[in-house]
């Protein structure tokens, strides 16, 4: 408080006394105003902090890495026994179970170099080991999970990716990672699911049993994306014909995202489409590859074992035109390529001579519908490898797929 001023007022000093009292009152008023202002500002800051805190805890991830999804924040030194993680909650934002290792880029196991896909750290899942994280969802919505994985000392490594709880047993998939399409030692994979509840856990589990419990896949960069189910339009009877809606693609990853066959994925991370083959297809982006239209496309990387399909509603007896582009991804994939397109009882082969530097040609299939539901299907006739001596599988790129009914089929465009 301000100190009071003792002053005796009389006729001779009345004016001076009043002036001092007025000044004292002004100072007192200014002091209390300042205190009130500081208290109000602190209160406002407190409200802002509480609001931001509540937002942080209630927001769900819709497009990007999970919290500490790249594992760059690791255990404390006291929570590590060599590289083995000690403590179920030692890795921030994750719960671990079983033999889990925290791997640093450049770390060796004997003569083998353990490669980390991105950043400086990753985790390795040993026998029956798993990692999981609790996430908030929009109930009833569709999501895709993208993660990077690399094989280490085991040959037939598999990962079980699931979301729990779920209604039924459809939202899980076993993804084999023994087939590596690139030469980097790792791949990015995507799987899809429907959120049956507003909150759940994303679980990645190594189902393998090896003599060495430390043998297992490396996991890095786990991301989530909310999928917007595409619809058919008057301009295209196919859903997501330009492949723009799909799994999350890591901005710094130049190797694309593998979408497994539908037999290992109950909900496709590529809305509208089914990977109905034994091998995966690759989802690529225009930041790292040549794409004919838009920002996304599909590379058929495993010959006839890599097929993409969609079932569309058609009118029996009506004529339709299926148009699409065939090209290469500008990834040193050279040679003669052929994409086969099927619709109903009709088929067409579209050849493309690739120089491995980008480019495309257009294909077209005119057909008459023989049923009310027609399966449109694409595959690559040949296996192709890059010309960089890496042994990496590659293939033709399809994009801008459209299906329209033909009003006057007697006139050929």
Automatic annotation (TrEMBL):
Residues 64-225, 236-403 form the DUF642 domain. Pfam families: DUF642. It comes from the Eukaryota. It is found in: Secreted, Cell wall. Keywords: Cell wall, Glycoprotein, Secreted, Signal. PANTHER family: OS02G0527500 PROTEIN-RELATED (PTHR31265), PROTEIN DUF642 L-GALACTONO-1,4-LACTONE-RESPONSIVE GENE 1 (PTHR31265:SF61). This is Putative Galactose-binding domain-containing protein. It comes from Lupinus albus (White lupine). The lineage of its organism: Eukaryota, Viridiplantae, Streptophyta, Embryophyta, Tracheophyta.
